[in-house]
Design a protein that fits this description.
17% of the residues lie in helices and 26% in strands. By secondary structure, it is of the alpha/beta class.
Length: 266
């Protein structure tokens, strides 16, 4: 299952039923899980781990050193979960500080030429479209969808079940369940109703998210006041996830940039 032109170091751990295509290079201290398919001209560098049943397409580079002037060498890692699809030209870089890692969750779909800088952390079932770029230490929650050419500034957090429109910029934290309109910067346009339905949120849960969203963005209260009032109204459920996310922000959160119609999804 390893093409004769591929170069696989003897120190690499290759699982069962793994296919490695022409002209690919796998360095030592790499682990590739059972059932993975590695395409042609793929480079997998040391300290990289892939879970089972991943499919890595042509010319992806996994585990190269970080593009960080503060990188001083040492052992850092890339850890990729199971069931991921990594398309052509994707780049995923190691952590900056020794012992740290860039982490991709299970069943993520990383489309062509997307980039994941040092210490990025993706949750499970995340979709990142073509040419999106995630800076260092970016965190993305489960089932988020980042459209094509999106740029996410270093240290930003993108919450669970968010939808970021194409060609958008994110330099502040985006709370869970929200959307950003295409070709905007940090401008929340509404709630990700479709994403919540697909994730199995009940009508009652979606209604709670809507109430929390309206309190945070359309009540006229500042963020601190909205969180204090929200915590008094909701003590459990998805609204609590929003309050916890907002309270943990260090960069501030994305502001309202939509219309009245966009605010009131079902």
């Amino acid at each position: 299952m390893i093409h004769k032109t591929a170069i696989v170091d003897k120190g690499a751990e290759i699982g069962k039923d793994v296919s490695i295509g022409p002209f690919s290079c796998v360095e030592g201290n790499v682990r590739i899980g059972d059932g993975c398919v590695i395409g042609s001209h793929v480079t997998i560098m040391r300290h990289t781990t892939l879970g089972s049943k991943c499919h890595v397409h042509a010319c992806a580079v996994l585990g190269d050193v970080p593009q960080d002037l503060g990188f001083g060498g040492g052992e850092s890692f890339v850890r990729i979960g199971s069931g991921c699809i990594i398309r052509e030209g994707v780049t995923i870089h190691r952590g900056t500080k020794p012992g740290t890692a860039t982490e991709i969750g299970d069943n993520c779909f990383l489309m062509a030429y997307s980039h994941f800088a040092h210490n990025v952390k993706l949750g499970n079932n995340v979709i990142v479209a073509n040419s999106a770029m995630l800076g260092g230490y970016v965190e993305v929650g489960d089932r988020a969808f980042l459209s094509g050419n999106v740029g996410v500034h270093q240290f930003c957090r993108v919450g669970r079940l968010t939808m970021v429109g194409g060609n958008s910029g994110v330099s502040k934290d985006l709370p869970p369940f929200c959307t950003i309109r295409s070709v905007t910067l940090n401008a929340v346009a509404g709630m990700n109703i479709v994403g919540m339905k697909r994730a199995g949120f009940s009508p009652e849960e979606r209604a709670q998210v809507k109430k929390a969203f309206m309190l945070l963005y359309r009540s006229g209260l500042n963020v601190k006041q909205a969180v204090e009032k929200g915590r008094s109204e909701f003590t459990s459920g998805p609204a609590m996830e929003i309050w916890q996310f907002v309270e943990q922000t260090k960069r501030g959160i994305c502001a309202w940039g939509g219309s009245e119609d966009e605010a009131g999804g079902q």
